[in-house]
Amino acid sequence: MERTDIRSRLTVEHWDKLPESKLELIGGKLVAGNSLAGSRCLLWTILQSCGPRAALPFAPVALWRQALTKAFSAPTSLAWPGGWQHWAAQIDHTPLLHPAGTRFSRRHQDTFGLLMIGLYQALREDKQQPLGLSIRRFVLRLGEDGFLPDLQVFRRDRLHRLRENYFDGPADLVIEVALPGHEAQDREMKARLYAAGGVPEYWVIDPAARRTDVLTLRGGSYVVQAPDSDGRYRSTVLPGLTLDPVQLWACLDDWHERRGIEDQIVFVEPTGIAIGPSTRRDERERWAWEWRPYTPPVALKHVPISFEQCIGWCPEAKFELIEGLPHIGGWDGTRKTLGLLLMTFGLEKAVQFLHPREWVAPSWRKRKHAAATPPGAMRGGAGPARPPRCSASASVRNASSYSAIWFARSRSTFGPS
Known about the structure:
The chain has 417 residues and is α+β, with helices and mostly antiparallel strands. It is 35% helix and 16% strand. It has two domains: 3-100 and 291-368 and 390-413, no CATH class; 106-268, tt1808, chain A.
């Protein structure tokens, strides 16, 4: 494989600048680590390590040339390829990225773990009639948005809205554990979106500031719920569910002496308030991973991603660095993430993540190779070539196929087996 296929392998220092391992669909865009700044960092990382030839198959060469023309004000009279190569060599361009925020915090992880275990045990204290179900990092559908809360709770009488790959929201309780630098997103942006989606109760736990915000939905917006006289918070949606932040901070401050108090962080108090009987999960799965062909419609500008596309194409939000290359829920997941990010930003913005000369050289080689391919060669040379299919849907299908071939060949050449 040519060196242009793999520009440079990432180091741990590069990877540490990436956003938190979280992929969400907000406003038709793929949002990584709570912000579009995280999405930009993720796209930059993929292009830096895999090079432009990983992205070129997603759109015709002519569309990439239009993107370069608009992004860098290229003259419309440039000859191809010599004029373009000369023009690109004169451009002074350095991609600029804004910080994506903290990727990892030990205190954040410890807080998340304590709450996850506490909820699991508390909700199942009555094994015959559990109060509900808690799930970590599971897709929550609110309209056409798909969120990935740190934790969420569903009452037992609403489990019929649970699907194999997402909950057809709103959840009864959503919990976000704030990372340093992400406090505004959790307290403001997420609060506004969760309220609009009808989530009745929202907890924001900030371990760095030792702050707990319990928000209750009233009249379409959240109001801050004050703790009771004993310093505890009692849910207004899940009868008896109680949070004791004092015990939470005590466990975090003295991790080795947490035994005996960790089960007092989240628990269920008897209230006598009855809720409906448990319902069963809906077994009629509507959408599943890869249920539809991967054909992302990429254009010069942002193309809104539907929830249907996201749930079918977006991989697990698991960011890994393997042999210096980004794996997002696996190597094929990196390919799918790349297509969704190109839809999010559009080609006009995507080309600005690399220098123009890096786009011009491989796109010329791609066109030259296609021109030199004899008719029928792609089909084993048998018979005349088929007439071109010029429809937009055919172009998208072909782009997806070529991108799959590139990633498959790359995996066999340099990737892990």
